[in-house]
Amino acid sequence: MRREDARMAEAPLRMVQFTKSFYFGGTEVQVVELLRGLPSSYRVQVCVLDAVGPLMEPIRKMGITPEEFSLKGSLASPNTLTQVLRMARWLKQERVELVHVHDFYATVLAVPAAKLAGAKVIVGRLDLAHWHGKARRKLLQGLTHMADHVVGNAEAIRRMLIQEEGIPAEKISVIPNGLDLARFKQRMHEGLKAPLPDTGGAPVVVHVANMNHPVKRQEDLLRALATVRRAGPALHAFLVGDGPRRPELEALAGTLGVADRVHFLKHRADVPAIYAQADFGVLCSSAEGMSNAVMEGMAAGLPMVVTDVGGNPELVADGERGLVVPPLRPEALSQAFLTLLGDRELGRRMGAQARAFVERELSLTRLVRRHDELYRRVTRGG
Question: Do 367 and 176 touch, CB atoms closer than 8 A?
């Protein structure tokens, strides 16, 4: 019997994808792509802590109504145990075989609930745990050890899990993020949804990241722009994203004398079209997993300037698909900008190699296939 025929003959694999919510974010986007791509041999349900966010719309268009298990405050409250027990009962009732959980808060519920229900559980570890204090990191480490398998999206995460948390190497799979290239190109060609600031034809660098946490280090980008300005070349920056740090970043741009060259675009739904207007992209985080923003910049054919943290150098490869600089070093960032401004042909070559890498290594088809293989191995041994 052919493998495809055998799959048709067996019962659908009953699984749950579990994440905190469906606001715009790299993790949430990847969950949506998985849901779109998994074959009909799955019976997939979705669990959330809070059924909110703009990505709920595509979930509902797939005919999926997420089951909500709200924490309603502190993890230390009695409600956490209530939700664990409630979820365990629900998993048994739905005869779920596998839970794939994607973030810290959902992991707190999903791992013990799956164990109580007799379901397999895969924990997604998609960053370097840099958001967490010691207590939460210890809790996450313990839950990761309890899981049946662990998925990271970068080799840097795999190394951290082995070296710092003692997770057995054979228990970890690395599956890089995937990008629906056809949809991305379509969004590029659809064009801008709103006008962009007039830069007078000057070169543009694009930075896409939230403004919620200092780890994204937009301040380093602003300082690098001030250095470039003193060196002479005109360079404008489009900062896509928003959050509570925006006012202080706007004030810093004024203090550094680059307010006329830094444009805070807030949240935008037309990021591919914005990348299409740029000369290169940047991500200057002090810690990172595998960044969707970097992947999208590469898919747009841009050379990316990134910091040497997490999965960034795995994506970019210094001197091949962009430039990699040390974190927390605005002067190194400015030198990379000046290199690309001074050699536009170099930037075009790097951008072409970046796009080819995404097409070859980071397709949505590859993402779904590797998850499908892992899910079946963990649950059914095949």
Answer: yes
pTM beyond 0.70: the answer is yes
Check whether residue 77 and residue 100 sit in a common domain. yes
369 shares its domain with 354: no
- Using DSSP's 3-state secondary structure scheme, residue 140 falls into helix
Three-state DSSP at 183 gives helix
CATH code of 174's domain: 3.40.50.2000
Encode the chain (382 residues) as per-residue pLDDT tens digits. 445 555 545 789 999 999 999 987 778 989 999 999 999 999 999 999 999 999 999 999 999 999 999 998 888 899 999 999 999 999 999 999 999 999 999 999 999 999 999 999 999 999 988 878 899 999 999 999 999 999 999 999 999 999 999 999 999 999 999 999 999 999 999 999 999 999 999 999 999 999 999 999 999 999 999 999 999 999 999 999 999 999 999 999 999 999 999 999 999 999 999 999 999 999 999 999 899 999 999 999 999 999 999 999 999 999 999 999 999 999 999 999 999 999 999 999 999 999 999 999 999 999 999 999 999 999 988 6
- Two structure tokens written together for 92: 């048994």
Residue 281, φ and ψ in degrees, nearest 5: -120, 170
Rounded to an integer, what distance in angstroms lies between the CA atom of residue 86 and that of residue 379?
23
List the structure tokens of 188. 């590029």
Q: How far is CA 253 from CA 246, 264, 381, in A?
A: 11, 10, 55
Nearest of 29, 35, 40, 1 to residue 16 by alpha carbon: 35
Rounded to whole angstroms, how far apart are CA atoms 161 and 172?
A: 8
Strands (E), 227-328: 236-240, 262-266, 280-283, 304-307, 322-325
| CA–CA dist 224, 247 (Å, integer) | 19
CA–CA dist 228, 269 (Å, integer): 29
Q: How far apart are CA 340 and CA 337, in angstroms?
A: 5
Domain coverage including residue 143: 3-178+363-380
CA distance 159 to 163: 6
116 shares its domain with 129: yes
287, 203: one domain: yes
